[in-house]
Amino acid sequence: MRTKQFKAESKRLLELMINSIYTHREIFLRELISNASDAIDKLYYHSLSENLTGLSRDDFSIELALDKDARTLTITDNGCGMTKDELESNLGTIAKSGSLAFKQEEDGEHREDIDIIGQFGVGFYSAFMVASRVTVYSRPYGSDEAWKWESRGVEGYTIEPCEMDGHGTKIVLTLKENEGEENYDEFLDPHRVSALVKRYSDYIRYPIRMDMPARRLKEGCPEDKPEYEDYTEHETLNSMVPIWKKNKSELKDEDYNNFYKEKYFDFEDPALVIHSSTEGAATYNALLFIPARAPFNYYSRDYEKGLQLYASGVLIMDRCADLLPDCFSFVKGLVDSQDLSLNISREMLQHDRQLKVIAGRLEKKIHSELLSMLKNDREKYEKFWKNFGLQLKFGVYNDYGAKKDLLQDLLLFHSSSEEKLVTLSEYVGRMKESQKYIYYACGETVEKIGLLPQTELLRDQGYEILYLTDDVDEFALRMLFKYEDKEFKSVADKDLGLETEEEKEEIKKQNEENKDLLGFLRDALDGKVKEVRLSSRLKSHPVCLSSDGMVSLEMEKVLSAMPGEQKPKAERVLEVNASHPVFAAMRKLYGDEGGRDRLKQYAFLLYSQALLIEGMSIDDPVAFSNAICDLMSK
Question: Are 624 and 605 in contact (CB under 8 A)?
Fold first, then answer.
């Protein structure tokens, strides 16, 4: 029998198909099963459009068989089958897809019932990644003739008549021998093959069946001496109808929860389920889950975001990162679409309009569901916030605030007056008529922030303060800048908008009258502060630390903890309470030439005290301790 050469461009093209297009050789099984599904779909379509009798959807199936001794894996379908000319055309010409041609030519009323998967005509050749010989037996529906196509790869193929019971196609792969680290025996293991079907082809709409080894208790054996026997059971390996294509009315919470826990290996029910179907510019089904708690590695570099991506029920990508923005990276789930522009291997997507449309719609859907949870089930939302609120706040700051408008209404912060988490909308709704700013204060804990001297005046006047305890908080608010036309203002800012013009003039006058003393204190601190000034924000406390410029004290702390040699520094200002007895004592010492050395010591102590109040470290703890002891001894 004469061996025919492939009609494609060259042997090099086939080598490319086998060795370069697919990154995982296990993909071959997905491709061959998808081809079998297409063949059944074609016949089923014709049975509807041409009123063929004797064909029922329940009669169709895909059969797998393993023979370890012969080293063969066989995939059989009872679909449309191929004539000799079709074998020659579809298998003898690389990159010619019979499925694509069928899809383009048919436009009948039943076309919507068909999910044709193959588009490129190269998936079949992935079989040569694992097989040294591929044999195809095929008999078209309604014909008595069957044909055998056989190839060992780049050397070409043969076609000859054969005998075959029933219509359809049978593909026999003679697997390669193991060589070095290359283990092809795995594709003769029924459990491994079953796992691959479950992973890639679980939602093929026709049953995929195979003999599976099982064990049972022998009949008649005594209960105290049980004996077991091995047997073979013909099992259906795939689920066929995916849960996300079922009507919501058919499903219960338990169905969603069980699917989530089995699919994503979680022990808890999800906090939120989002099941949506969309048609139009991009048609897709989405089933999304928000976990009840953050995965152990969520806030680490090891965590990978992304949704599983299916094309007509066939898994294309295990993690498609492009479908989720970083701010919603905690969402798990999947998307199934018929409209995706896949690349030739079906392992990656081309970055096209449909993908962007789907991603945009998913983003809006997730946002609306979270907002609904916030408004209708506050307790549940606050549990979600405990797990993933940090990610939303980082999302506000990330990418120069690209998502800040999307996320601002989802944010929660601790409140000084409510003593619980509040939204920005709730804060603004309670603002006094004369209040100019949304005030916030930063610190390690809510309790420590409440003790800050800078908050005392605001709280005494009945102003609500947002307490920021996470590193990213102030960065996020600075990126927001305003909410409902109300500017954010740190309690450590120079102008809190509280003083009258008379009060501003009075504190300005006091600073002018004591400028020599204040300059002395600044010089005594030897460059540690930009300025020492009298403050009207302090009531019972003698001193506090604030900053001028764009970098706040809290930002300095955060940025100093990051790697890198250049650490941004805040322009520190030491503020002194002009009404406090300590200031009166300093004025007295400054008026006494012999007391100025003691005044330098006071400056050091007050500055160190202000650092401790802010939760910042003292440059020289020993010197601070000695200064206190020296003061006590005198």
Answer: yes
Query: From CA 202, how far away is CA 195, in angstroms rounded?
Result: 9
Q: In what order do the strands lie in the sheet with 72-77?
A: 157-162, 146-151, 131-139, 168-175, 72-77, 62-67, 208-217, 228-236
Strand order from edge to edge, sheet including 413-415: 421-422, 413-415, 465-468, 437-442, 486-490, 482-483
* Angle value at C-alpha 410, between 254 and 260, nearest 5 degrees: 20
pLDDT tens, residue by residue, 196-247: 999 999 989 899 999 999 998 888 888 788 888 999 999 999 988 889 988 8
**Positive or negative, the Cα torsion across 241, 243, 244, 250?**
positive
Which H or E element spans position 532?
strand 531-535
- The residues, ordered by sequence, that sit 6+ positions from 362 with a Cβ below 8 Å of its Cβ are 286, 288, 307, 323, 324, 335
| Contact between residue 38 and residue 139 where contact means Cβ atoms under 8 Å apart | no
Nearest to 310 by CA among 212, 471, 199: 199
What pLDDT, on a 0 to 100 scale, did the predictor assign at position 386?
96
Q: How far apart are CA 275 and CA 362, in angstroms?
A: 11
Neighbours of 284 (CB within 10 A): 24
Give residue for tokens 């179907």: 277
Dihedral pair phi/psi, residue 84, rounded to 5°: -60, -45
pLDDT at 155: 78
Instruction: Give me the residues paired with residue 170 across strands.
Output: 76, 137
The residue among 344, 477, 358 whose CA lies nearest residue 413 is 477
Which residue matches tokens 């291997």?
Answer: 345
Q: How many helices (H) and strands (E) does the chain have?
A: 19, 22
Residues 245/247/250/254 CA torsion (nearest 10 deg): 60
Which amino acid belongs to residue 275? H
The three-class DSSP label of residue 487 is: strand
Rounded to the nearest 10°, the torsion over CA 111, 115, 119, 124 is -130
The answer to whether 44 and 56 have CB atoms below 8 angstroms apart is no
Q: Is 6 exposed, middle or buried (0-12, 13-18, 19+ CB in 10 A)?
A: buried
DSSP per residue, 360-417: HHHHHHHHHHHHHHHHH-HHHHHHHHHHHHHHHHHHHHHHHHTTHHHHGGG--EEETT
pTM assigned to the model: 0.80
Q: In the numeric block, which tokens belong to residue 348?
A: 């990656």
Taking only the tens place, the pLDDT of each residue in 162-193 is 999 999 999 999 999 999 888 999 999 999 99
pLDDT tens-digit profile of 400-452? 999 999 999 999 999 999 889 999 999 999 999 889 999 999 999 999 999 99
Helix (H) or strand (E) holding 150: strand 146-151
The separation between the first and the last C-alpha atoms of the chain, rounded to the nearest angstrom, is 114
